[in-house]
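so my prof wants the structure for this chain in the tokens format not the other one, which i didnt know existed until like an hour ago. anyway here's the sequence
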Amino acid sequence: MSIQSLKLTVSPTAGIVSAKYTTPDKPKCIFTLAHGAGAGMDHSFMETLANALSGAGIATLRFNFPFAEGKKGRPDTPAVAHATIEAAITKARELAPKLPLFAAGKSFGGRMSSQYLAAHPESPVKGIIFYGFPLHPSGKPSIERADHLKALKIPMLFLQGSKDTLATWELIETVCASLKKATLVKLEGADHSFKAGKKDVMSLLVDETNKWVEKKLK
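here's what i got, hopefully its the right format
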């Protein structure tokens, strides 16, 4: 496994952000890996996930959104987030032009990635993995945030904790049932941070991701 530090130019106004390219010796595909609203690309969850995916033969390009790069508390507007994801997809294509490309993200990062892809069906991305889709604010169950998913023509993998307060299980189940290309995996006892007591949820996340990707690469 190798880890390379990079820079991505988002736009003249949003500036430049940091990125890290983690790749195994013989990668079978590459992910863009977007972080959530609460922490940047170097959060322990993101780093552990990137390293574990590398162990499964999956290269990742994880990156900061401008708000995380500038250490600001409030997440970027969708327009800025989408521009960042576009820059990451372009860079991933440059780094590994022959590898199948997937988008992935934790919470906010997955939601912003799917919004971008819904608006750009010409993208080379072959599928998207959600590590906890944030369907609604905590305590305010609703499904409006999933409306754009109907526009996606690519396969989707939803990895969701059964105790995720940002995606009530019954609602995320209903949303995924309405999407022809969606696969929903229930991680019993896990919350939005994928904590579930002493259970090794990270291994489950990577195993489920790898199984799904292998099917898509056939």
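also thought this was worth mentioning. Strands lie at 2-11, 15-23, 29-34, 58-63, 101-106, 128-131, 156-161, 182-187.
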